């Protein structure tokens, strides 16, 4: 059940990415790819949480994605 809900969010974000592509004159914003990546890794943590070390690696990769998203948006916040 929970896996199906998380899959729904992945599909929803992918459809939102396609809609944003057409609305922004055929340009993919970076942040949507990062959102999809974070959601996919969270799905992996929820579904396959057998090994604590792999969960730690997934959590660190989510942290890196969030930091990359912050750095990508920091330029726009300054302007």
Automatic annotation (TrEMBL):
Compartment(s) of residence: Cell inner membrane
Keyword Membrane listed: yes
Recorded superkingdom: Bacteria
Keyword entries, A-Z: Cell membrane, Membrane, Transmembrane, Transmembrane helix
Membrane topology: Multi-pass membrane protein
Principal localisation: membrane
Transmembrane segments annotated in the record for this chain: 6-23, 30-47, 53-72
GO cellular component term of the entry, any: plasma membrane
Keyword Transmembrane helix: yes
Gene Ontology biological process: cellular response to phosphate starvation
Pfam families: PsiE (PF06146)
Family, per entry: Belongs to the PsiE family.
Protein name: Protein PsiE
Lineage, broadest ranks: Bacteria, Pseudomonadati, Pseudomonadota, Gammaproteobacteria, Enterobacterales
